[in-house]
Amino acid sequence: MEKTEQIWLDGQFVPWERAQVHVLTHTLHYGLGVFEGIRCYEDKNGRPNIFRLKEHIRRLFDSAHILGIKIPFPQTVIETACVETIKVNRLRSGYLRPLVFLGDGEMGLAAVHNPVRVAIAAWPWGAYLGEEGVQRGVRLRTSSFQRMHVNTFMTKAKAVGNYVNSILAAVEARQAGFDEAMMLDTDGYVAECSGENLFIVRNGVVKTPPLTSVLEGITRASVLALLESMGVRWCEERFTRDETYIADEVFMTGTAAEVTPVREIDGRVIGEGRPGPVTRALQERFRAVVRGEIQEYRDWLTPVD
Ligand code: PPE
After folding, report:
1. CA geometry: angle 72, 77, 79, nearest 5 deg
2. Which atom from ligand 1 is nearest to the alpha carbon of 257?
3. Is the shortest distance between the CB of 192 and ligand 1 below 6 Å?
4. Cα–Cα distance for residue pair 78/85, rounded to 1 Å
5. What pLDDT sits at residue 239?
6. What is the pTM of this model?
């Protein structure tokens, strides 16, 4: 990863190398923490704008609330700190990573009195699954790891520990020579990928799994709004892995992945084996929106002056 200069830690900026924690940091041992991933894009005037900042910070606080963690700053302070982190590092585009974790103090599972700490880092981050993946589409494999049950982990929280499930799936898929894992829920229906929401297009209708066992993706919500404005029909409905095989198009969405086409699943070619017309139109529109080229969606962007 490309280093930047400063990291916001518990209310102030510290040099990148000095943003360190003790090995007895509670979250390192037990995984109770929450985080966000946010992108910042350069507009045509060369200025950075953060995409859907308020929604991401709202989800950070919601995630903490679900886990019973009280963030010791108001939402507005964290929002401003995100803007400042882009600014002090003189980034025009990049990825922001706010992280809320329990510091050291007590050990054991019920150490609720440890300090709640907040870090915000930012760095440049290109195409998540490679530039070729964005252009040509990626290859998925159904994971042998199920997406966690809604009563095992809290799937609405973007919690640190939840990502053990994602990493098991992502690493398995890559070791088998695929780009990403398609994960099924504990009822056997398609849920999402290790770090992206999943969509299929069939007979002109876009389908994505309902929010029951998937992360409530902010790109997912943005894409649904864009589809609506493009006059494309969509629904939230459960579907099976074999329905993905016979879809005309499949794509994934996420902050890091943006809109990434899928060209193959479990060795079956999807549609024509290249990004289809709905996916391409959506990629184009998403690109224009995040760069501030469509006035209607300017309020999705927070300028970094
Ligand atoms: N599902 C999962 C499990 C997930 O991790 C993400 C984001 C999404 C869906 C899409 O959510 P949203 O970003 O709000 O549209 N995954 C983050 C992790 C990337 C990483 O490798 O770290 C991201 O895209 O930032």
Report:
1. 120
2. 24
3. yes
4. 10
5. 98
6. 0.97
